[in-house]
Amino acid sequence: MIISPPFLPATGNLTEEAWLASAMPLPISFNSLDVPEGSYPIGNLMLWHNGIHLSSTSIGAFKTACAVADGELIFVREPTPSNTNKDDPLNYNSTSDHPSWTDTGMVIIQHTTEIGSSDTEATSITYYSVVMHLSTIQHIDVPAVAATKTSKAQAASTRLLNVGDKIRRKDPLGEVGLVEGHRQIHLEICCDETNLKKIIGRDPAWQSPTKAPTAHGRTDAVFGSTYIYVPATAPMDTTEPKSVTRINNPTSTIGKPIWVEIHYQQRSCTLRTYDDVGTLLGQRSDTIHDLTMFDISVDRHNTLTDTAQAQSSPNGWYSLLRFGRNLSGDKLPADAAHWRKINTSATSEAWVDLAYSGCYAFSDADFLPLFGWNCINDDPSPDDQRCDSPQLRKWLADKDDPTGANIKLNTDAKRAKARRLISKFPTEWDKASILNRYGFVKELPGLKDNPESWELFKAHALAVCCDGLPKAYLDAQWHFDPREFIRHFRQCGWLSRSEIVQLIPEKAVRKAKSEWVSEKVPMNLIATELWANRLRELNRSNRQFGINTPRRLAAFFANALQETGWLVVMRENSDSDGNKAAYYFPWDGRGYLQLTWPSNYIKYFRFRGNVISKVDEATLARAHKAARDDLKDKNTKDKLHDTNLKDDKGGSVTIDKEFRDLRDGIVKIPPEDNPTDLALTSGTYWAWSKASQYADITSENVRTTITTDKKESLTYYTHEGFGSVAATVNVGRPVTDYSRINGVQARFQAYSVAQVVLFDTPEFPHSDGKFYPLPEGITLRKST
After folding, report:
1. Are both 232 and 156 inside the same structural domain?
2. Total number of domains in the chain
3. How far apart are CA 656 and CA 677, in angstroms?
4. Is residue 193 located within the same domain as residue 58?
5. How far apart are CA 111 and CA 68, in angstroms?
6. Which pTM does this prediction carry?
7. DSSP summary character for residue 652
8. pLDDT tens readout for residues 514-533
9. Residue span of the structural domain in which 605 resides
10. Under a CB-based contact definition with an 8 Å cutoff, are residues 607 and 599 in contact?
11. How far is CA 145 from the centre of its chain?
12. What does the alpha-carbon distance between residue 450 and residue 307 come to, in Å, rounded to a whole number?
């Protein structure tokens, strides 16, 4: 799932939270209630409000509203031309007698994407975004059409966006208009109940935030922070315990239930402790993070006895450290301990076992009630627009209004509590139901004795509302705060097939003899069960190894695509035969990052919990050295072939058959397949090579040109951070001489495309010296 705000200011050096705040600014209050215009989920007069208003300047990134995600237009309404006629209902002003124009341009987009998967089925969700109060609807280019025997040629032209148009994230939808004279848009996110259940992973009912859990959270969707419920009986110690397994009958316990949040970000880890009602007790940094987790996992496995290791794997330990539970599918001791030094109170720290009996792990994908996520579905009069939900009134009540009789979102604290409420009520835009929904308004003080005010309000409502809204949208009565929905799902990192398709360049360059050739890239990612299984396991691997940010995903896929010949082959040169000409055959590349060389295969299979003997390791090390020595003399003699291996005295020897079968089983010929090893070889290599530290580098795109065999100048962009990742993948370590990296130009091209798809505001210098959001000379692939 890829999502972004409708406004896209430059990211600069802002943190994610700071950038999102700058991209989705709320309007100031233009009335005496100290409530920002267009608040969620309620506005003035206790009216349900579908979404939020976002304030705009009339320049730069805020002049145009953009699509928040890929989708399809299901409704478009052109705006009414503005005027200054005070009798026009669209010049209605709720706070004064001065005419204040409201624009009516509106688009509704249906978005379908994935946020995870079970073992058999992707967790596919459909939701809707609405952008209202546009002053114009975007025009799009229509390419020229050549004449045929039965039709005339058509010149290139433009037209307005229309129902049925496919929309990409960041596509312009139209210019920001006015809401009662103030430059704003209305943004909403909604879905139906079936999809809400898939989004939050449970039934949409109010849940007590303080109820202790009795099981782990969902496993299909896992993203963001890890949250672990720790019972009062969990052991604690003032010094780090030496044992990696559970302490039975502990002499000291924490004495009260707590929650621990584990948040990994780049090369750091933050541990936050909360009491059982969600109050933050403290936070501290931890030494277990993306760059240390692999080695720590291996160390914990190796600490065990040989007997205990039979029920263990470093991969299982890695999953425990990442997710607070073992989601890897590989072995982990039943009594594995997960010791972390945390704040046990506001003034004290201790080591606590977060995997003790009664501990339960969750992620942000669980939408935990303790941290504010809850569902409102108890309005006794759901067909009118007035919010009469007892639960919402109780949740947002304060000491000045203990019954919540007249809630106002006039404090930061109340607005923060409201942001994570998921509320059910009908849309405010349906013209056919206006009298039912707003009839109560004419009975309110100030309107009951002033029928003219009611008529003005009604006329305005009729003017801004719509006929013919799609049934799918009318049925999508569950609403999110769009800011929180966007912020939350930007942590997801799970890519659907259609999103991955867009990462594949239309064309790529390669060296043919002594000349550069630009060729069309095949699209092998077809919608089959084979690829559904492969992409599921690839996404699972990426989420386990922290390949879940735009920069890391772009760096990973730009290498994986080139390494596999654009997903055509999963083994070097050929799925069936491999690269027999390579001196390191049969230890040639396999998987998305083409795991190569005996030592890396040994490292990988040991990480999965397989036993590879020291004898086999020494045999292969000797053979690898001999093969490399022969390579220097240009006299390679297949010394790594299974039938040519020698012991330390020069006698013939074979390595264990089970080891050979593991190696040869990574890549199978369809319809047989091994999607797990294809993915995990890549994720594991990424983790132990610490590629994330290079992927996280924020360097510039540097314009470079080459001349093709057709004497055409072709532009591509180098990037320091990605270049280091490419070298780590292909050479084994970062290098500054990019010519040592096989196919580096195509990798750079793929990285440029990935930036456009995954980043919010990439910048590419063109030949005119200016910067643009698209790379020069590159055509993006359409998703299929």
Report:
1. no
2. 4
3. 19
4. yes
5. 9
6. 0.95
7. B
8. 889 999 998 888 888 999 99
9. 574-666
10. no
11. 38
12. 85
